[in-house]
């Protein structure tokens, strides 16, 4: 049986696997733990062992004081648990407790859409230095700055548990300088400055409340990150995902390399969503066309199935307003709706 780590004062618990550090296990479990470099240099992940035994798994350059050592203080990034362990360490309670960061990173990989792909979403993988990883909450955005006034605010599509490998889903927008750069100029190994994180499109503390996610186009980027976190935090939370393509007026592909194909094609990363349905008993997934009326009806029907819920909307600003207003008119409680504007590329 895997050992279990209990965090004080929150009382949150998570399992730790063999060869994992306590920090790695906590991030994998979706916990917003305090840390900095993840490499034993900064001391940002200091915690006090209240009970249980830990083992040092790697050397760290950060020097603990004699008093800290006498109080059983350790670095979570350099220790694992031997059996069940109780530690005293704070957790971030919201986006305001995540520090603002500025990191010089490199583009690792770019995957452009095929000519048949009507979604025209570029997948960009950026890797940070090992000693300066990005601490963020699922659903947040960062500013990507490639220099020469090519910069924009973009949603992080990956899970905070892999803070060194950041993934972005970047839609094509004709006549947008940032979009044209991503699709026509960006190359692997290019340097990029990451600044942030920004935004409050994040999960509530109570992840046992049923979650309904509605994503339009590349609005799936932050939604996918939130779903992965919700799955890591709780094994029983009902999760419903509805996806639609961008509105027709935004689906103008970059010609001639990236034309648009069959409009009935599934959304990008459709197989990933279907795999979630296969492994998660409470997960439901449906795709719709770009008819906002149908989307409002589908989302409101799912909301009415629960006494309480949180409904997350992510998509272009015009779509977002239309769907939000329609849901409220359908008696979905406005205070339970959280929205995120993915309107192409937004500068700060």
Question: Which value, in Å, is the CA radius of gyration?
Answer: 21 Å
Q: What's the assembly state of these chains?
A: single chain
Q: Report the CATH C-level class of the largest domain.
A: Alpha Beta
- Secondary structure category: alpha/beta
For this structure, what is the CATH homologous superfamily of the largest domain?
Nucleotide-binding domain of ferredoxin-NADP reductase (FNR) module
> Mean of residue pLDDT?
89
Number of strands: 16
Globally, the shape reads globular
Residue runs with pLDDT of under 50 for 5 or more positions: 255-261, 344-348
Number of domains: 3
What percent of residues adopt helix (DSSP H or I)? Answer: 10-25%
Q: How is the largest sheet built, in terms of strand order?
A: 9-8-11-6-7-10
Could you name the CATH topology of the largest domain?
A: Rossmann fold
Q: In sequence order, what are the helices and strands, one letter per element?
A: EEHEHEEEEEEEHEEHEHEHEHE
Q: Which architecture of the largest domain does the CATH hierarchy give at level 2?
A: 3-Layer(aba) Sandwich
Q: What is the count of DSSP helices, taking H or I runs of 4+ residues? A: 7
- Beta-strand proportion: 25-35%
Main sheet properties = 6 strands, antiparallel
Can you characterise this structure?
With 348 residues, the protein is of the alpha/beta class. It folds into three domains: 3-88, Ubiquitin-like (UB roll) (Roll), CATH 3.10.20.30; 96-198, Beta Barrel (Elongation Factor Tu (Ef-tu), domain 3); 211-341, 3-Layer(aba) Sandwich (Rossmann fold), CATH 3.40.50.80. The protein is built from seven helices and 16 strands. A six-stranded antiparallel beta sheet has the order 9-8-11-6-7-10. A five-stranded mixed beta sheet has the order 2-1-5-3-4. A five-stranded parallel beta sheet has the order 14-13-12-15-16, with helices on both faces. It is globular and about 65 Å long.
């Amino acid at each position: 049986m895997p050992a279990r780590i209990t965090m004080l004062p929150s009382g949150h618990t998570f399992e730790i696997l063999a060869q994992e550090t306590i920090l790695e296990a906590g991030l994998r479990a979706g916990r917003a733990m305090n840390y900095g470099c993840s490499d034993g240099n900064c001391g940002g992940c200091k915690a006090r062992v209240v009970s249980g035994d830990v083992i040092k798994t790697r050397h760290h350059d950060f020097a603990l004081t004699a008093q800290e050592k006498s109080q059983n203080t350790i670095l979570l990034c350099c220790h694992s648990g031997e059996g069940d362990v109780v530690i005293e360490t704070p957790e971030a309670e919201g986006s305001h407790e995540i520090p603002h960061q500025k990191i010089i990173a490199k583009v690792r990989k770019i995957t452009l859409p095929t000519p048949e792909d009507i979604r025209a979403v570029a997948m960009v993988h950026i890797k940070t230095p090992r000693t300066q990883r990005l601490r963020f909450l699922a659903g947040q955005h960062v500013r990507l700055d490639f220099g020469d006034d090519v910069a924009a605010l973009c949603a992080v599509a990956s899970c905070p548990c892999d803070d060194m490998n950041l993934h972005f889903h970047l839609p094509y927008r004709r006549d947008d300088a940032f979009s044209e750069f991503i699709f026509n100029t960006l190359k692997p190994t290019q340097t990029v400055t990451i600044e942030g994180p920004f935004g409050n499109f994040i999960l509530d503390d109570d992840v046992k409340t049923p979650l309904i996610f509605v994503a339009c186009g590349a609005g799936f980027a932050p939604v996918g990150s939130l779903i992965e976190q919700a799955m890591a935090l709780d094994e029983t939370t009902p999760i419903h995902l509805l996806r639609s393509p961008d509105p027709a007026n935004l689906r103008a592909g970059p010609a001639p390399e990236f034309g648009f194909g069959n409009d009935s094609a599934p959304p990008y990363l459709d197989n990933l969503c279907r795999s979630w349905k296969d492994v998660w008993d409470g997960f439901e997934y449906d795709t719709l066309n770009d008819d906002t009326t149908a989307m409002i009806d589908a989302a409101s029907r799912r909301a009415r199935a629960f006494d309480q819920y949180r409904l997350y909307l992510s998509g272009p600003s015009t779509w977002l307003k239309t769907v939000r207003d329609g849901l409220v008119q359908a008696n979905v409680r406005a205070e339970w709706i959280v929205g995120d504007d993915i309107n192409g590329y937004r500068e700060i």
